[in-house]
Amino acid sequence: MKTYLFIAIAFLIFSCKKEEPEIQSIQYPDRPNIVWIVVEDMSPEHLESYGGTGGKTPHLNALAAESLQFQHAFSTAGVCAPSRAALITGAYQTAIGAMHMRTLAPSAAAGDAYPPGFKGYSTVLPEGMWPYPVHLRMAGYYTTNNSKEDYQFRSPVTMWDESSSKAHYRNRPDPNQPFFSIFNFTTTHESQVWAREGQDSLLVDPTDVTVPPVYPDDSMSRRTIARYITNVMRMDAQVGEVIAQLKEDELYENTIIFFYSDHGDGMPYFKRELYDRGLKVPLLVKAPWLEGGTKTDELVSFVDFGPTLLSLAGIPIPETMQGQAFLGNQKSQPRTYVYAGRDRMDSEYDRVRAVSDGRYKYIRNYMPGKPNYQNIRYRLQNPLMVHLLDLQEKELLNENQSRWFAQTKPEEELYDTQTDPWEFTNLVGNPEYSEKLAELRKAHEDWVAKYGDMGALNEMEMVRNWWGGKEEAPTTEPAQVNFENGKVALHSATPSAIIGYRISKNQGWKVYVEPFEATAGDSLYVNAHRIGFEANEIALILK
Q1: Which residue in 80, 225, 232, 363 is the catalytic one?
Q2: 507 shares a domain with 427
Q3: What mean pLDDT do residues 408-429 have?
Q4: Band of pLDDT at residue 112, cut at 50, 70 and 90
Q5: Which candidate in 8, 34, 52, 121 could, as Cys together with 48 as Cys, close a disulfide (CB 3.0–4.6 Å)?
Q6: Catalytic residue flag (residue 16)
């Protein structure tokens, strides 16, 4: 009997970027433990190490004192799901069709709204593309996610060893097994501004906060900002708990820790926008070889996080990843630009792209006839949003506050974020900046030419193309099972299918890499899943 090898997996393990990695003098540990602490909807300035907005963040201050602090880290979208798609794949969401917010089935209970004719779908990843946890698991890591996913696709059973509110590196069966663990805190999420009101006392006085110029300086603005800063302080305490656990387990000193937010602030005219206040994130990285309390101006994009993770773990970066490593043995030269996109937000379509060199920001509006502001039902739960709409109707907002509600927008925008951090003054048309405009316009167009932009397609047509013209997602071909000489070999005819297996229903799913030992009479469960397709699971008794 012929033994099948899962060739696609072997190809992805050993296929890496063609450029030779830069040789560094640093001796990186083999398979280090890595923890990502992820928060939501938070710009850098709320942390005292980035300047602060009035709240106290002692635990993150302590982490910053032992970390390299990135001053120019950016998400690829001003909203969570597209950004998380870029994080988990190392590819731009616009290049893989994961740019619309959001793609899975509507949830009326969550306040989601979708356009007429919308049909929920799981993004079909390009052939050969697997999320980074799969690569980590194949290399022997124990991977945990606690617990938000929101990747624009349904996760295969092979994605994580654990993904739940109880997921923890402490649950790994072998204490010597290297681990990668995410702890995601929702405390600073947009929704917590209204959900925690009346449930949690304020830790800052509304009269003491600074009101950004995009809002009127009144009691509603101050109250909402104070609530948000309070949430940041609550989150800081949660971060402290994770740090305390690592220290209790005597793992803190040698564990690589990332702290970051999934995009910029969750406040109105911040979240979902491609201004720095919607894209810029805090990023602290603590590692044994990094000098604590230092800062870097190196540009970093969310598409770089996956490659960097694999670089630190000693795993070759696959060619499917479009980002570049900023740490580890496969570290690349610093990037020149970062890119971002805005597409459908819930029920409302738009298409906006941005490129930044860290100081100058170029924005291309592909639908200039649409206003910047969109009537997104979910956001209307924020009392400040309702307040701003009321003031706009009464013509009580100033020029900079009301520009969000203009009925159209220019085709191109250019801002100097150093001298104009709120991006109020559009420099397009100013001859002093014509060369910078041409440079960033070309950078945007080169980016689209290199990676493609699926935002140009009709969303439902794009989905039907993935599904071969049908109205439902295809089903992954079942795994073929070959049992010979005490070993099991698995193979699926569907390209890029990830195969998971387990000998007992009480076991966790393992990622299939190569033939494994088994015994006649064993009950074998096999799950084949190409991401974006329906999974196909079979059960049999080995004979």
Answers
A1: 80
A2: no
A3: 98
A4: confident
A5: 52
A6: no
